[in-house]
Amino acid sequence: MRLLSARLIISLIIGVMLVSLCASEYEVWVGKRNLRRDLQRRAEVLAESLAGNVERDIERGAFQTLRKTVQHFAHRENLIGMAVYDPQGHVIAITNDLAPRMAETPPVVLDTLKDNHRSDAFQRLSGQPVHISVLPLYSSPDKFLGALAIVHDAGYIRAQSLRIWHETFLSGLAQVVLIALITLLIVRWSFEGPIARTAHWMRALRTGRMPSSRIGVPDVELFRPLAREVATFAQSLNTARTAAEREARLRAEGQFLWTAEKLTLDLRARLGEGRMFVVSNREPYIHMRRGKSLEVSVPPSGLVTALEPVLCACDGTWLAHGSGTADRETVDRHNRLLVPPDDPHYTLRRLWLTKEEEEGYYYGFANEGLWPLCHIAHTRPIFRASDWKQYQAVNRKFADALLEEMRESEKPVVLVQDYHFALLPRMIKQKRPDARVAIFWHIPWPNQEAFGICPWQRELVDGLLGADLIGFHIQSHCTNFLQTADRVMESRIDWEHFTVQRLGHTTTVHPFPISVDATELSLERSSEQVFDGRSGLLKRLDVEALFLGVGVDRLDYTKGILERFLALERFFEKYPRYQGQFTFVQIGAPSRSHLKRYHDLEAEIEAEAGRINWRFQRDKWRPIVLLNRQHSHKEIEPYYKAADLCLVTSLHDGMNLVSKEFVAARHDESGVLILSIFTGAARELRDALQVNPYDIDQTAEAIRVALEMDPEKKQARMQHMRRVIREHNIYEWAGTLVTELCELRLDNEEGIDGKTHLGASAA
User: Fold this and answer.
1) Measured between alpha carbons, how far is 553 from 598 in angstroms, rounded to an integer?
2) Around 86, how many Cα atoms within 13 Å sit in the side-chain half-sphere?
3) Which residues lie across from 645 on neighbouring strands?
4) Residue 146: closest CA among 61, 85, 237, 210
């Protein structure tokens, strides 16, 4: 306790002294600054008052009069003297006391003579601190006569500063002595005994020498509330820890809601010491250079939300194309970095593509070929042999990088994402048959006749069949794929279990509907907040309306944006009472704009919105507000929450997460979703108003029904859809996908007995 008292007193003494020294330093600094400013001001005033007479005497050549004038002002307070110089730096007149000290022209005077501007400086003359203020002299704006130098004694400034230091030090010393005495008395009289007894009791609790049944509160009145809380906290913490572990174990084994924590716990148990590898074109973190600053951003993708807990659980690796302007600056010599930036748990491996590779593999084969091929949106796919060559090369580059990353891993688990890497599964399996490989195809798979348009359909299907598990959003896409494989490949299809056997390898094909993070669906939001949000949004858009609709899409020909605008036009034609009352906000993110089809589409969308607005708008109302730029999810969410309806009119979509994001955002259980029947989400969100986007009148009528629907019906429909999303969220998608992959029996796990049996049968 004595040691504690000594430390406390010494700490207080040091603290008070530091504060006192800092305060003294500040006071000295402020005082010195003010004294210097006052001296500078007095020198300037004196120079200005003398300048007229000095300039006149120089102009007339009355140097004797000039010397008398200079000598006359030589005895003012703190004034050492003054001097007058010609343009060449020669002294014209100088006070008697100053002449011995300024045998040479000071640099500050030379600066004024050189640049013809006022200047001043604090310096030393013959060991004495002085202030020199120099004013240029003119007889006319164009005729420079020289300079007037005013020299003051600045020694009194240091004397004043020392006086402040002395007074402050004595004051601080008195405070230190007084505080130390008071602290010592308080510690001795009030804290020493209670602290000692409390410390002894807490030490017994910490070391476990006190049985939990005998845990009590020490007899110290001063610390009784704290001791009671500590004892209660210790007991409740043990209870809570036990309950949390039990709950986590039960949730991992049961059919409860999937969360990031449940996903992490479940996959850690399944993977054990194994490692997970994810391959995608888009990276989870992008580093961009903004001027001199470095910014890191997360692309608006559900993949990061779903797969990050998986990778964090097993110290995984994510391979992706490094597309950020500062991506190369942030990786190590192996092109790796640890992410997330704030709490690193897994590795991001970046690969670099040349402009030719990106043009051919991504923009060419993937987005001018496969994308329109797989979407029935009546846009002709373009297949070039040069693009196919780059597609093969980039798939090989990613395969080589992945094999390098997996070199030290036993039985790795690989998740390949989307149509950019159709060849990758076969490349990996050929080198690492022990790896568990799954690919998830995020876009639709067309029927076998449509896919037959692709000149390299056999190579693509063969590459996909290298995977152990292929995932699509819905069952019909799985069926289409199996029919395509049956048509173009020598294989055996098991329609009961949805598997394909080819070259001694079995591939399972199942649907895994992707979703959104709905863990916060239980949060409540008041209708007042929604109303304020709507009015605020409309005010920022400079639009007056009673009802609000929203659409959120990339500017892509598969999203049915032009058909949506035609339906809005038809709606205003059929129901003119909504003119001036209903405004539709289309949030459109530009996409692949340097491709001609996308560039033309952006122009068409802008032209169509302009035409409809020109036809109907009046005063401060517009039927359509087109926001043609990238928006973050944080920017979009207020529109979801405030809108009376959300329009999703995709002509063909694998899933469409906008519909689910809208439902997840509606904590008020209001709003109506109008959903295309050609989306994967239409299979799950059956309480949406489902429409054929090609049927303009049907979509227009759905808009009217949505605006006029009873609040009770809106709530019931939204409740049902929110329940679907809550039970089938993004974590369930990742969990079921990885779980099924881990539970599949690999071909090489059949062992020697299986091979011997097959050989004997063949014999």
Assistant:
1) 13
2) 9
3) 549, 672
4) 85
Mean of the per-residue pLDDT values of the chain: 84
Residues 6 or more apart whose CB falls under 8 angstroms from that of 57 comprise: 63, 65, 66, 69
Tell me how far apart the alpha carbons of residues 512 and 498 are, in angstroms, rounded to a whole number.
Answer: 14
Total length of the chain = 763
Question: Count of CB atoms within 10 A of residue 56's CB?
Answer: 14
Neighbours of 223 (CB within 10 A): 19
* Spatial separation of the C-alpha atoms in residues 157 and 210, rounded to whole Å: 68
Q: Is a pLDDT exceeding 80 seen at residue 332?
A: yes
**Chain CA centroid to CA 685, Å:** 30
Residues 6+ apart with CB under 8 A from 599: 593
Distance (Å, whole) CA 656 – CA 679 = 6
Residue type, 746: L
Nearest to 588 by CA among 548, 622, 557: 557
Residue 673 in 3-state DSSP?
strand
pLDDT digits (tens, 9 = 90+) for 484-520: 999 999 999 999 999 999 999 999 999 999 998 876 5
C-alpha closest to that of 445 among 467, 412, 471: 471
Dihedral of CA atoms 706, 709, 712, 713 in degrees, nearest 10, equals: -60
- Show the tokens assigned to 443: 């876009």
Determine the pLDDT at residue 544. Answer: 93
End-to-end alpha-carbon separation of the chain, Å?
A: 90
Whether 550 contacts 639, CB under 8 Å: yes
Separation of alpha carbons 605 and 305, rounded Å = 31
Q: What is the 3-state secondary structure (H, E, C) of 54-115?
A: HHHHHHHCCHHHHHHHHHHCCCCCCEEEEEEECCCCCEEEECCCCCCCCCCCCHHHHHHHHH
Residue 261 in this model has a pLDDT that exceeds 50: yes
- Each residue of 198-255: pLDDT tens digit? 666 666 655 555 554 455 555 555 555 665 555 655 554 444 444 355 455 545 555 5
Residues 648 and 679: beta-carbon distance below 8 Å: yes
* Token digits of residue 175: 């405070």
Between CA 652 and CA 57 the distance in angstroms is 94
> Residue 93 is which amino acid?
A
Q: What is the pTM of this model?
A: 0.67
What order of strands is seen across the sheet that includes strand 413-417? 336-339, 346-351, 317-321, 276-279, 413-417, 436-440, 469-472, 505-511, 499-502, 492-494
3-state secondary structure of 674: strand
- Please tell me whether residue 289 adopts helix, strand or coil conformation: strand
Side-by-side strand order, sheet with 689-691:
624-628, 582-589, 547-554, 645-648, 672-676, 689-691
pLDDT of 135 strictly over 80:
yes
146: β partners: 137
Q: Which residues pair with 691 in a beta bridge?
A: 676
Residue 623: asked if its preceding bond is cis (omega within 30°), the reply is no
Contact 322, 284 (CB under 8 A): no
User: What's the Cα-to-Cα distance from 232 to each of 208, 227, 512, 689, rounded to whole Å?
Assistant: 16, 9, 46, 54
Separation of alpha carbons 395 and 399, rounded Å: 6
Contact predicate 109/98, CB 8 Å: no
Place of tokens 């002509």: 651
Do residues 689 and 706 touch, judged by C-beta distance below 8 A?
yes
